[in-house]
UniProtKB/TrEMBL annotation:
<keyword id="KW-0547">Nucleotide-binding</keyword>
<feature type="binding site">
    <location>
        <position position="211"/>
    </location>
    <ligand>
        <name>Mg(2+)</name>
    </ligand>
</feature>
<feature type="binding site">
    <location>
        <begin position="236"/>
        <end position="240"/>
    </location>
    <ligand>
        <name>GTP</name>
    </ligand>
</feature>
<dbReference type="InterPro" id="IPR032305">
    <property type="entry name" value="GTP-bd_M"/>
</dbReference>
<dbReference type="Pfam" id="PF13167">
    <property type="entry name" value="GTP-bdg_N"/>
</dbReference>
<comment type="subunit">
    <text>Monomer. Associates with the 50S ribosomal subunit.</text>
</comment>
<dbReference type="GO" id="GO:0003924">
    <property type="term" value="F:GTPase activity"/>
</dbReference>
<keyword id="KW-0460">Magnesium</keyword>
<dbReference type="GO" id="GO:0005737">
    <property type="term" value="C:cytoplasm"/>
</dbReference>
<dbReference type="GO" id="GO:0046872">
    <property type="term" value="F:metal ion binding"/>
</dbReference>
<feature type="binding site">
    <location>
        <begin position="324"/>
        <end position="327"/>
    </location>
    <ligand>
        <name>GTP</name>
    </ligand>
</feature>
<dbReference type="InterPro" id="IPR025121">
    <property type="entry name" value="GTPase_HflX_N"/>
</dbReference>
<keyword id="KW-0963">Cytoplasm</keyword>
<feature type="binding site">
    <location>
        <begin position="204"/>
        <end position="211"/>
    </location>
    <ligand>
        <name>GTP</name>
    </ligand>
</feature>
<feature type="region of interest" description="Disordered">
    <location>
        <begin position="131"/>
        <end position="156"/>
    </location>
</feature>
<feature type="compositionally biased region" description="Polar residues">
    <location>
        <begin position="131"/>
        <end position="143"/>
    </location>
</feature>
<comment type="similarity">
    <text>Belongs to the TRAFAC class OBG-HflX-like GTPase superfamily. HflX GTPase family.</text>
</comment>
Amino acid sequence: MTEKVIIAGLELPNQDMDYAMQELAALVEANNMEAAETVIQKLDRPNAATYFGSGKVVELHELGESINVHTLVVNAELSPSQIRNLEKESKLDVIDRTGLILEIFANRAKSREAKLQVEIAKLNYQMPRLRTSSSQRLDQQSAGDAGGGYTNRGAGETKLEMNRRTIQQRINNLNHELKEMTTSSAVQRQKRDQTGLPSVALVGYTNAGKSTTMNGLVRLYGESDEKQVFEKNMLFATLDTSVRKLTFPDQKQLLLSDTVGFVSNLPHQLIKAFRSTLAEAAQADLLVQVVDVSDPHFREMIQTTNETLQEVGVTKAPMIVAFNKADVADVEFPTLEGNEEITYSAKDKKSLILLTNMIKQKVFTGYREATFLIPFDQGQIVDYLNQHTNVLKTDYKETGTEIVTELSSDDYQRFHKYLVEPVED
Ligand SMILES: Nc1nc2c(ncn2[C@@H]2O[C@H](COP(=O)(O)OP(=O)(O)OP(=O)(O)O)[C@@H](O)[C@H]2O)c(=O)[nH]1
Ligand SMILES: [Mg+2]
């Protein structure tokens, strides 16, 4: 059964509260809970002790009693003492926005790498929130995670200190393990780089349609045994980066990766933890920012995505902005705006082909047509050209096989000595 909760936020000056609370409700849903009531308080600044003003706290308590709800989700990151005070006075379990997102990530993480990253983020969040009294939600959870080494039963300050040390030690160990893993994935990345294939990363706000776009492209150009990635109408469906190889009819190939989605105010602990995974995106030759153009707030989402990319250090890669879900946005599609923007639907084949052409134009630069004469005893070169380049014509001459083909400048250099009428660079 999904747990019913109350969601609450402060309307501070200059805030689009409807949007913020809608998004919080979607996050709550992504954590298998349901927002039964929404409470908003207008204030100039948060109350230092309880975040909400005292009248509102009483109201929250009464509301909880009357609808029999025991959990309050707050649309901000609260200080440890604010959570403590608010819990005490509202008699509700309090989850702040950061804690909520961390819980979602913890439930979704599948790969060892994602699990490690989420656990480090969670421990970093919990550390200042450890306390000696009461058995609160977070203490219970952390006890489970770390093998029960630090439940708090009011044993006093020394126990608390010890718990902090245990957690710090665990964070260090996990970081170490993660670093080793990242090193090996960096090695893998290097291996892929050596294949010389360009890489393209799908990035963007959560639920924009990155995975659907990836699956559509893989269906068209992927290897036949390539698995589909998980796509679903919920926030943070994807936590692990997946990479797929695409091969186009002209034999050109590239590596496409699907990445974790972003959300406004993504907890800094998570950004830090996911930095290494997202570094994958930083290595890409091209970013495709997928945007849900059917969402009235798509402009804010683009802004958040750009800011988050900056935060994780992805600043230099060229980017295409791909306005997705045009089929439900009442706009014409597929259409191009210059060679930097496309309006499309990830569920429409014509759209995907247009997007592909756009991507290809950006990443396959330096390709040229050339004619080679390959001696008959160099059959392996003929095989290579047939498999990896866009062969336009083959003729059998007395001295060898003549091949007219379109190929990358690397391959061009490689087979330079077999060129017929070599062209000066
Ligand atoms: N109508 C319509 N729905 C789409 C389109 N593209 C994706 N969707 C739906 O949007 C929802 C989210 O799609 P995903 O591909 O999982 O989104 P994502 O960007 O990978 O999301 P995260 O992994 O959570 O970051 C799914 O229900 C998709 O079926 C589209 O072009 N049109
Ligand atoms: Mg996804």
